[in-house]
Design a protein that fits this description.
Elements lengths: L1 E5 L7 H14 L4 E7 L18 E5 L2 E4 L3 H12 L7 E8 L11 H11 L4 E6 L13 H17 L11 E6 L9 E4 L11 E6 L5 E6 L12 H6 L2 E7 L9 H8 L4 H7 L4
Parallel strand pairs: 1-2, 1-5, 2-4, 5-6, 6-7, 8-11
Antiparallel strand pairs: 3-4, 7-11, 9-10
Length: 276
């Protein structure tokens, strides 16, 4: 198996080393692990691509490259350039330092890398390590992902839907719980949730020269979410697995909205165009 790994924490992030270990175990002695990761941290860039400016890429070692761009840029660089003649069989994004459960999904560059791989028609999995009070004093905060990562991925490869005929191919979001590895309770397939009473915000700051700046600040990662959601099962000590795709359409709203908006005659719409 030929595996491409990337992340959003940067080429020197410890989570990428964990990802490389997991990928090497999966690929086996006859497989290959390729790394194309951001030269600098790209947390929070979501599915951003460097559309309006070029991206420099540098070869650091055999099968190891750093790109001055986002995780999605890195996947594109790998597929279209670095690995163009020998494309990957699987793309793994992570292991992120911190969770990508709940609302964090929408901001995550780790998710963005996996999403781009899926858009390119490749099997892809995003992996993140939830952190919390029980992991704060561990010598290795990634120990749960390190110990259980390969097993979770193998089960996904064996049992998940990798041949969906939809326009948008599925990819998978995996979050390891914020507990030591020996306290991980199992795997739960869970929908994306949302933490209650917390959200991203800003912390304003005035520089000595009088100019105004701000820091983006996240909310509490320990806040509760809907029972059975990814956040909830993570907090209960389970690995969450969430099938995802790039289609943001709210399908359950289509029929009712169509009946409400498509029933009017064109003359009715023209008559109302000049009203205020």
């Amino acid at each position: 198996m030929r595996i491409l790994i990337t992340n959003d924490d940067g080429i020197n992030a410890p989570g990428l080393e964990v990802m490389a270990e997991i990928a090497a175990e999966l690929a086996g002695p006859r497989g290959e692990v390729w790394t194309v990761a951001p030269a600098f941290e790209q947390s929070g860039v979501a599915h951003c691509i460097s559309y309006s400016h070029p991206t420099m890429i540098a070869r650091l070692a055999d099968r190891r490259y750093a790109a001055e761009g986002s995780p999605a840029d890195c996947v594109l660089a790998a597929i279209a350039d670095v690995m163009a003649e020998t494309p990957p069989d699987l793309v793994l994004s992570g292991v992120n330092r911190g969770n990508n459960s709940g609302e964090n999904v929408m901001y995550s560059g780790t998710i963005g890398g996996a999403m781009e791989a899926a858009l390119q028609g490749l099997p892809a999995i995003a992996l993140s390590q939830y952190l919390g009070p029980e992991t704060a004093d561990l010598a290795d905060p990634f120990e749960t992902a390190r110990r259980h990562g390969a097993r979770v991925i193998r089960r996904l490869l064996d049992h998940a839907d990798w041949t969906s005929g939809d326009d948008f191919r599925l990819f998978y979001n995996v979050n390891f719980p914020p507990v030591p590895a020996d306290r991980m309770r199992g795997i739960r397939v869970a929908p994306q949730g949302r933490r209650q009473g917390t959200r991203f915000g800003v912390v304003p700051y005035t520089a000595p020269n009088g100019r105004r700046f701000m820091w983006i600040a996240g909310g509490s990662q320990q806040a509760p979410a809907r029972p059975g959601s990814d956040v909830a099962v993570n907090m209960e000590g389970y690995v969450s697995v969430t099938p995802m795709r790039a289609d943001l359409t709210c399908h359950r709203s289509l029929d009712a909205l169509s009946q409400a908006l498509e029933g009017g005659e064109p003359a009715d719409l023209r008559a109302g165009a000049g009203t205020s």
